Amino acid sequence: MEETAEFLQEADPYFSFGVIGDVQYSPKPNGLSSWRVMRYFQQSLLHLQQAIEEWNREDPSPKFVLQLGDIIDTSNRKLGRSVEALETVLKEIEQTSIPFHHIWGNHELYNFNRDFLKRSKLNTSWMHEQQNVHSERHDETGSHPDYYAYHFSPHSKFRIIVVDTYDLSIFGRKKDSQGYQDSLDFLEKAEEGEQNDNFHVGSNRHLVEFNGGLGSKQLSWLDEVLTYCDQQNERVIIAGHVPIHPEAKRTPCLAWNYKDILQVIQSVFGSHQSVVCYFAGHDHSGGYHQDSHGIHHVTMEGVIESPPDSNAFGTVDIYEDRMVLRGRGRVKNRVLIYREMHPSFCCCLPGLTCEKNTNLK
Ligand SMILES: Nc1ncnc2c1ncn2[C@@H]1O[C@H](COP(=O)(O)OP(=O)(O)O)[C@@H](O)[C@H]1O
């Protein structure tokens, strides 16, 4: 639901956070993308500065910011200025004490490999919450050797999960690595399957290199974290670079295995009721859809395609039964009512073992 600013003035929220995506900073001049859309490279850093200034002025200030990826543009690599560009944006972010949670997009992987990103300030998994809720091998810094995903709880009733939508990807992985081979195999198999899928034909094909997906280990990890959240009656917000719902974007920007991801977060067996919203970037024109399970899919408009007199960021206020997105510039205000939680449900029948429960560590 879109709302006017007056409607948004409510009582004190539990907490608030900032959200922004696709800054794509580069020192290069403004110009048209391959899709004939203007990209404002000269303004993107100023837009980021403005967002930070506004968040700094807010009272109470946002507890954290979700930076949805593509913070610098691929052109920096061609200019030999990837590290310098990254330092430039990080210097802006140092102007605030509000912690940023960084997500990796395709442009991070065009500029750097995963080993570099892991060692860089774009790896914020050290802010993960130490919770023994999953069997997948996340080390003491919150990192998993194969993918970049973690979770944290900013409030006793809420959890944020950062996912890696380029876990399956041919970018950022060495060509002789298992991850690269698995991604190629996935694409090949998915392309065969897609021939019968009328939704993704012609220019709307999403099985393209600049999208990616979640690998099987990350999907099991996500399933385990969500099971924990269900047990704790937590509401969950997930953030990743690539949209995961075909109705929440306007272009081919969609995760390769979006159906597998939706199946986990919607949980066809009815046991995961915790996810209320998925935030994405990637499609600079933005998008929104509430799916059949009541999960809100918000694709944030990209900073890089925001004209000088506009911008694209927001502050999200979290309440008991809703979240309110106060959009700035091209981002619309939205009141997002949470899906209903039903009493705990278990698929076990007496005498049978429930797979979900035996998976718990
Ligand atoms: N077939 C397409 N038609 C229109 N726009 C597209 C198409 N494919 C990608 N885009 C646009 O490209 C942007 C994402 O691309 P991005 O990650 O910046 O990589 P690139 O710089 O290679 O375009 C999105 O805004 C998306 O809308």
Automatic annotation (TrEMBL):
Cross-referenced Pfam families: Metallophos (PF00149)
EC number(s) from the headed UniProt entry: 3.6.1.13, 3.6.1.16, 3.6.1.53
Known catalytic reactions: ADP-D-ribose + H2O = D-ribose 5-phosphate + AMP + 2 H(+); CDP-glycerol + H2O = sn-glycerol 3-phosphate + CMP + 2 H(+); CDP-choline + H2O = phosphocholine + CMP + 2 H(+)
SUPFAM superfamilies linked: Metallo-dependent phosphatases
Ribonucleoprotein is among the record's keywords: no
InterPro entries named in the record: Calcineurin-like_PHP (IPR004843), Metallo-depent_PP-like (IPR029052), MPP_ADPRM (IPR041869)
Keywords on record: Hydrolase, Metal-binding, Zinc
Span of domain Calcineurin-like phosphoesterase: 16-243
Cofactor(s) demanded: Mg(2+)
Keyword Cell membrane in annotation: no
Gene3D superfamilies according to UniProt: 3.60.21.10
Subunit field text: Monomer.
Protein family according to the UniProt entry: Belongs to the ADPRibase-Mn family.
Protein name: Manganese-dependent ADP-ribose/CDP-alcohol diphosphatase
Source organism: Staurois parvus
High-level lineage: Eukaryota, Metazoa, Chordata, Craniata, Vertebrata
